[in-house]
Amino acid sequence: MAPTLWRDTRRASRDGYRARLEEIAERADLTTGAVYSLFGSKNGLVVALVADHLRPYYEEIEQAVPAGLDLLEAADAFARYYRRSCDAPDALPRMSLQITLLDMALHDPELGSRLATSIRSQEEHLVALFTGRPHGGSVVTPRQAQRLTTALRALFVGLSQGVALGLAPGADEQYFAAAARALASGLCRDPEEPTP
C-alpha cells in the first residue's frame, strides 16, 4: 500500500505540512477513512511513507558495503555509495523531499518526534553494518558505530546539499571517502570506553 501512496504524494512533497490528507488520499484512490484505518493519521501516513522510502536505500547500502571490510574500508565504501547517489536521476527530488520533511517536522513537533524515531530505527541498519568491524587492533562497538552513523549522516546530508546547490564542486567520491575515513578514525576513539 505505501509504495502506491509514495508515488502519489507529490502534493504532500510540494505543499509540506499544508498538504491536506483528503487531497493525498484522493490522488492515491483512497478514502480518508481508509488512510485513517491503515495509518491512524496524516502523520502516521508520512512516517510510513518515510520508512517505506528508506528501506530499499539501506538494503542497497548493505550490498555496497561487503562484510569482509575493516571499518575504514567500510566507511570508504559507504561514502562512495552516498556520493554516487548525489548524481542519481532522483537526487534533486529526494533532496526536495528531505527539505519538505524537515519543514513539516519543524511545524509539527509530534510528527518531528515520530519521524526521528522512524529514521533512527532505519539507521540501526548502518549501526549493525559498522559494528564488529576490525579497527585499530580492536572491533567497533555498537556505541562507536552509533556515534559514527550519526556523524556520517550529518556530514553527508550537508555535503550532498552542497553538491546539489553547486557549493561543493570538488566534493567527488574521493572527497566523500576521505571525509568518512577521517570521521571513522576519530570517532572510534570514544573517551567514555576503555581502550583494550
Question: How would you describe this protein?
Answer:
The protein is mainly alpha-helical. It has 10 helices and 2 strands. The chain has helices spanning 2-7, 10-15, 21-27, 32-39, 42-64, 71-85, 91-107, 109-130, 142-164, 173-187, and strands spanning 134-135, 138-139. It has a two-stranded antiparallel sheet with strand order 1-2. Strand 1 (134-135) and strand 2 form a beta hairpin. Helix 7 crosses helix 8 and helix 9 packs antiparallel against helix 10 (173-187). It starts with a helix and ends in a 9-residue tail after the last helix. The model has no long low-confidence stretch (mean pLDDT 83).
**Strand portion, in percent?**
under 5%
Average pLDDT metric: 83
What composes the largest sheet?
2 strands, antiparallel
Structural class: mainly alpha
Q: Which percent bin holds the helix content?
A: over 70%
Strand order of the largest sheet: 1-2
Spatial extent as radius of gyration: 19 Å
Structure summary, number of beta strands: 2
N→C terminal distance: 49 Å
Shape: globular
Helix and strand run: HHHHHHHHEEHH
Number of helices: 10
Which runs of at least 5 residues are low in confidence (pLDDT < 50)? none
Quick summary:
The chain is an all-alpha fold and 196 residues long.
Descriptors:
single chain, 196 residues, two-stranded antiparallel ribbon, 10 helices, mainly alpha, globular
What layout of secondary structure does this protein have?
Elements: H1 2-7, H2 10-15, H3 21-27, H4 32-39, H5 42-64, H6 71-85, H7 91-107, H8 109-130, E1 134-135, E2 138-139, H9 142-164, H10 173-187
Antiparallel strand pairs: 1-2
